[in-house]
Amino acid sequence: MFAKNSKAYSVYLLFRFVCSLAVSMSTVLSIVYHLEVVQLDVFQLVLVGTVQETSCFLFEIPTGVVADLYSRRRSVLIGMFLYGLGFLMEGALPWFAPVLLAQVVWGCGDTFITGALEAWIASEEEDKPIDKVFLRGSQMGQIGGVLGVVLGTLLGNINLQMPLILGGSLCLLLGLVLGRIMPETNFSPAIEERQGLLKDFVCLFKLNLGFVKGAPVLLALLAITLCGGLASEGFDRLSTAHFLDDTVIPVIGPLNSVTWFGVISLIGSGLGILASQLLIARMEKKGTVSRTSVVMSTSAGYILCLVLFAVGRSFWFMLLVFLLARLMRTIKEPVLAAWMNDHVDEKMRATVFSTSGQLDSFGQIIGGPIVGLVAQQVSIPWGLVCTAFLLLPALFLVPVAGKKRD
After folding, report:
1. Range from 156-160, 265-269, 288-292, 298-302 that averages highest in pLDDT
2. CA separation (Å) from 389 to 194, 259, 290, 294, 301?
3. 57: how many CB neighbours lie within 10 A of its CB?
4. Per residue in 184-233, pLDDT tens?
5. Beta carbons within 10 angstroms of residue 284's beta carbon
6. Are 149 and 24 in contact (CB under 8 A)?
């Protein structure tokens, strides 16, 4: 498949595959690692995610500006090395303070990649339909994620620190390989005449702010991204605890509680791969898909499934609605990114995507502690219900984005 594509597109698919493999291997059992090895309580568990998202929020815009001013390729490489360092730190030092610091390191690395990667491939492959590029990249990421889940689960049954350490090492290796093979031929700086880093940063930030204010569709899409951030942290951090505390996980042969979470993640990735392929096939047949319909239906489905997951007590019912909720988010994200890409100026692409990432992080910073306190003071199911309700404004914003024109 890679041989038939251009070098940039092949590198993009390779990156999505290997990076997802490393990240999935590192994170598939990270909540279990935090609960059983680091021994965090529910509030500390949410706080770990909040610290990571705070780091993303603080660094997202500066790293996006660096990508648009200097090099999107270089930004991706820096991100991969920070990813590797953060995972190695988290796995090697199983105490609360180092785990918090690790979230800062790999959270910062994530900001160097977010925005820069999408801007890089959109510029290098201007002639390809961007919906299909992002969906295919998402699919390759899900395939890599499946392999990462398998490896992470097998290693986690031996030692819960091993997936993090090996995943971090793989990120460092990927960074070295990308340094040799990743092209950048269509990049031009957003500001040609440099006046110094600080002045350039302020100038580009003002240009970006003015552009976003003048693009009503983009404003609506960024607001939807903020709602998605508000409604994601509680799901990511509390779903494992809900399975462990509020239902009985069946032991079937080698399927103990640790292995089950690997299997759940594996099934979720498989469903995501299938759904992406069906959506790509429909695009190839009809030429396009209704982005409004996709984002609206997946947002509504996520809310419904998350509420059902929260109130459920049967393991099999909880498993079904959990997988459906995860699938809704998997389908929505690449379509929303492609929709946003159509309303972004090429020279400010990384900065605008970074703004989107910053809003997502800000939403998680606000939403995480709220649902964490609800889970701690009331119950985990009520924390999950609160998480679902935080996405409700998106249902009113999607039709607004669909009707407006720049």
Report:
1. 298-302
2. 46, 31, 25, 19, 12
3. 22
4. 887 776 665 556 556 656 665 566 666 556 567 778 888 888 888 888 87
5. 10
6. yes
